[in-house]
Amino acid sequence: MEHILQDCLITLGRVLFWTSISWILSIGFGYLCFRSRFLYHLLLPIINLFRHISPFCWLPVIIILWGIGEISVGLVLLLSMLFNGILLSVEIFHNVPPSIIEEACLSGADKYGIARHILLPIATRELINLYRVLWSVGWTAIIAAEMLGVNSGMGYRLLDFRYLLQYREMMIYIAIIGAIGIATDYGLLSLKKVCPNVSI
Questions:
Q1: Which residue range(s) make up the domain with 120?
Q2: Residue 55: φ, ψ to 5°
Q3: What is the C-alpha to C-alpha distance for residues 19 and 11, in angstroms, rounded to an integer?
Q4: How many structural domains does the chain have?
Q5: What pTM, to 2 d.p., does this model score?
Q6: Is residue 200 assigned to a domain?
Q7: Are 199 and 27 a contacting pair, CB within 8 Å?
Q8: 27 assigned to some structural domain
Q9: Is residue 150 part of a domain?
Q10: CA trace torsion 21, 23, 29, 33 (10° rounding)
Q11: Contact (Cβ atoms closer than 8 angstroms) between residue 155 and residue 143
């Protein structure tokens, strides 16, 4: 139990990093698919293929190509979050009233200006909610990923407790995992609520 703070920080760091990467990529690819129907229909079968396959199915391939370690854990998290994130991002941008975008185009705004000054401000709350969803997916997947690929973190420690038959410590860690999940979800929900509701 002396490793509990270190394990929490390591696991939180992994999830924070890979959730942020997945979030940024989801918004980027989501915007590109929103702007181009051809690209959307081209990528949709690929996105659907990968999002319906458990990321843990790819573990043998990931381990063969990158071995066991941080990269493998990160790729599992990325596969868990990215493809659903792209579809959600497309829907978020589609929910912006088309009349606003058309008016901006008539006013001479380019694609960059529309994205920066219209789409992102209007969609900020929903994009924060997207991060909240991705975080919950990543927080769930990280425990299993750490059991398989690294020698640190809460998932690794849970596996260690199981081998040592330390069930009391195992239950404490499970409770902490749940508590951290609730706390981070509440924090992101609070951030969404205080974010100004932009309407143009």
A1: 4-194
A2: -60, -25
A3: 12
A4: 1
A5: 0.87
A6: no
A7: no
A8: yes
A9: yes
A10: 170
A11: yes
**What residue type is 135 in one-letter code?**
W
- Residue 114 structure tokens: 């529309």
- Count of residues making up the chain: 200
What end-to-end distance do the CA atoms of the chain give, in Å? Answer: 53
CA torsion 183-164-5-142 (nearest 10°) is: -50
Q: Is the dihedral of CA 139, 141, 142, 144 positive or negative?
A: positive
Reading the block at residue 100, the tokens are 């606003």
Average pLDDT of the chain, as a whole number: 85
pLDDT in tens, 95-147: 887 777 777 666 666 667 677 777 888 888 899 999 999 999 999 998 888 87
Among 83, 55, 199, smallest CA distance to 141 is for 55
φ, ψ of residue 32 in degrees (nearest 5): -60, -40
Using an 8 Å Cβ cutoff, are 155 and 145 in contact?
Answer: yes
Domain with residue 161: its CATH number is 1.10.3720.10
Task: Give the DSSP letter string of 47-115.
Answer: HHHHHTS-GGGGHHHHHHHH-SSHHHHHHHHHHHHHHHHHHHHHHHHHTS-HHHHHHHHHTT--HHHHI
How far is it, in rounded angstroms, from Cα 35 to Cα 39? 8
**Cβ atoms of 186 and 119 closer than 8 Å:** no
Grouping H, G, I as helix, E, B as strand and the rest as coil, residue 13 is helix
